[in-house]
Design a protein that fits this description.
alpha+beta, elongated, 4-stranded mixed beta sheet, 8 helices, about 230 residues, 4 strands
Amino acid sequence: MARKETAADAANPGRLKQIALTYKMTRKADKKIGLVLAAVGIVVLGVFLAIGFLIGHPIYLGILGLLLAFLATAIVFGRRAERAAFGQMEGQPGAAAAVLDNIGRGWTTTPAVAMNRSQDVVHRAVGKAGIVLVAEGNPNRVKSLLAAEKKKMNRIVADVPVHDLIVGDGEGRVELKKLRTTMLKLPRVLTGPQVTATNDRLRALGDLMSNMPVPKGPMPKGMRMPKGGSPKQR
């Protein structure tokens, strides 16, 4: 029991510190975050208190309003923090890989399966929707990378649907903040065992990560591909 209590006590300061850090990071991009959160909490609590006085149960509805005010504030904070994070990542090489890493259970992601010297890059995700190739970079240049990778996928796993997405602003592209939602909306056509089999077959291909150390998440702007184009696939 003592060990469990100690672990819980140690975890609480960690969570509070993480929340405080998230708030500070969000406030840099969203100056009004404090006022917005305060307004949401006050409005929700005020509404329930008013209803409580009208019906003669201010204490009961006040407590309920306090809990719901906290919940509403947490939801608004989470959404604005997510929006601020996407805003900071927007346009950075490797930003799409960071989103794919957090897409959720049921997906296996492989960052940087193809890349050129200009840092245009293609990531791969495999799930019940099939194979999704996500490209980021110049839309004109990434099309050739996507076409080559899609041709490879169709040759190795011809019975699995292959989708391709280009991250960015403009027609025919998907905004970074909408990437996860777009992928989760794709129709599910594979079973769990089929997803596993597909991953096993693709794992045999190897990828760029096996030949070149590329960090997860946004990649350094000074990073350059070695001469000779893309590394050889295993």
